[in-house]
Amino acid sequence: MLKGSSPLIFERSTEDRFAYSLPDLEVEKQELSDIIDTKFIRGTKAELPEISELDLMRHYTELSNKNHGVDSGFYPLGSCTMKYNPKINEKVARMPGFANSHPEQNDKAIQGSLEIVHDMQEHLKEITGMDEITLQPAAGAQGEWTALMMIKAFHEANGDHNRTKVIVPDSAHGTNPASAVVAGFEAVTVKSNDRGLVDIDHLKTLVGDDTAAIMLTNPNTLGLFEEDILEIRDIVHEAGGKLYYDGANLNAIMAKVRPGDMGFDAVHLNLHKTFTGPHGGGGPGSGPIGVKAELAKFLPKPLVVKEGDNYRVEHNVPDSIGRVKPFYGNFGIFLRAYTYIRTMGPDGLKEVSESAVLNANYMMRRLEGTFVLPYKQHCKHEFVISGSKQKKMGVRTLDMAKRLLDFGYHPPTIYFPLNVEECMMVEPTETESKETLDGFVDALIHISKEAEEDPDIVLEAPHTTVIGRLDETLAARKPVLRFQREDIIEEKE
Question: Which of 323, 319, 275, 274 is nearest to 297 (CA)?
């Protein structure tokens, strides 16, 4: 066991202890081999920990206390929108009529659930300015891929088989080029200009008869609004391509401006980010996509449609790209997001955007004198600073991120986007108080001072965590991804 750490559950294990009580068997006992093919039956008993109920509860409580999440501390990951998950969302998602429903039930038996799905689609149409929505994709990256497959189907339906390239900014989320390649396209990079925005002149040299689409998020990954979006729209549309909107940064513009009004043809949203569904370890995610009318017939099936006062599931969608997720998607996340939207209302969603932008600009200006600010204009919901000045003192952004752990903060996104040296990308979200923002900023300023006066404190961080600084190279090349029971046996012996 590591010094100062809690014992592993296998280390707690003692023979003949148990934490469960199963009811008596009410059916005739059968041999396992009569039910399951013997090739699927293990030859030896599974080596599971034997532990009392109290010790089991303490074990998992200790683990949860060591975990960092939005309920336990500030989580300023850029482009991840790690905001507070309102508990009313959880209450609604656990209502028996929703939690106990099953998608294989007859449509008449799940009218309430289908109504939620349909009404959610209508809300997202209004928020995005799109004509049709599907909630089926399981997360943002799958939403990207789904939208690109629809764009591909659109071009092929028009006999336009030469459109093989998708343009992606150099500051884009890493999933963008990956989704393009998985969808069968070639990803082509468009450069940013000196203001961190799409270089229009370079874009003009890239578009042509082979352009299928351009993938943008607006504001972009640097937290900057693409001021030339209407010109970008005209350039790509005139070349016959489509505009795809990565909705990871929608938190900055809700109820202020809509992707559909900017000229985008398809958009994905992250319900598990912008609309307060838990994600990461608390997932699952949800990545609905919206499209303009000319792409609608290619939506994944089945569709939830309304007829009079009733709702039904439509499987007959001849031009659909097919199913991308079982049933209708991750229904529990819809419920949480739906509750959030209905709770906030249009005025509340507008205030979300305004507060997120205010918080980010406040932090950025407080840090401007301590760190290099590569782009001087106002940001939207997130911003980037550079640790290049501290690097000259021998302290990297990575070192400062590890030192932040000693102050109780989760580090922000580092070294992304790749076009900013020693990058640190911070997104505070609208849910954090000024006191929290000031505490985080003060910690970064203090760490910068340490880098100048006593760099070893930063270089050897973290000092207060259960696990100290890891050997990054060894961890990357020889990761330990599973528990080895032999290690416990050797230690006990």
Answer: 319
